[in-house]
Amino acid sequence: MDYLDCVEVATGDAPDTSVIWLHGLGASGHDFEPVVPHLGLPEHAAVRFVFPHAPEIPVTINGGMVMPAWYDIRSLDRAGDLDEDRILASSQATRDLIEREIQRGVDSRRIIVAGFSQGGAIAYHTALTYEKPLAGLMALSSYFATPHLTQPGEANRELPVFIAHGTQDPMLPEALGRQSLEHMQQLGYDPVYKTYPMGHEVCMEEIRDMGNWLRPVLGY
Fold this sequence. Notes:
Elements: E1 6-10, E2 17-22, E3 47-52, E4 56-59, E5 65-68, H1 84-103, E6 111-116, H2 118-129, E7 136-140, E8 161-166, H3 174-186, E9 192-196, H4 204-217
Parallel strand pairs: 2-3, 2-6, 6-7, 7-8, 8-9
Antiparallel strand pairs: 1-3, 4-5
Helix pairs in contact: 1-2
């Protein structure tokens, strides 16, 4: 099996919990590595953070420049031409990483799928359609790109969900975060929804809120 190249950070020996965290367009798996110590996880928590690198592909809205991307963005119109094939391929690559964590001894119910921006769009589809129960989903400064493709399976009907967005985001306006929240509510989920006075980024208050959400979800 060929897996995505990943950066891994473990907070203890023999991890029994995993967080698979997908970066945004043009970034890398190193992007969220510095966040780990600031989540406030307890000292005894043995968590493996897996930060995959997206493949490098031409991105249409950036003049065809080759860069790390989970899928092509062909238009700024989010309702426009969607690169469904690459979204599904990236989702499958993420599912493969989930399966690898299970093979490494982590119960699926202790695996979180997270993503920022483009990575969050992949996280939505992957987590909601995965056949085994997961611990949770985090979507940061992102949008639910595939409600027409995403038929949630029974295994994750009760999935805890954390959605966060910047109110001053110039790339993905906060309206997309609220739209994602509404899509999730229509599907029967009850996400935690947080906003912050920031652009297309993360902030310390958001990181603390992520930690406050993660701890009870993981039983810490």
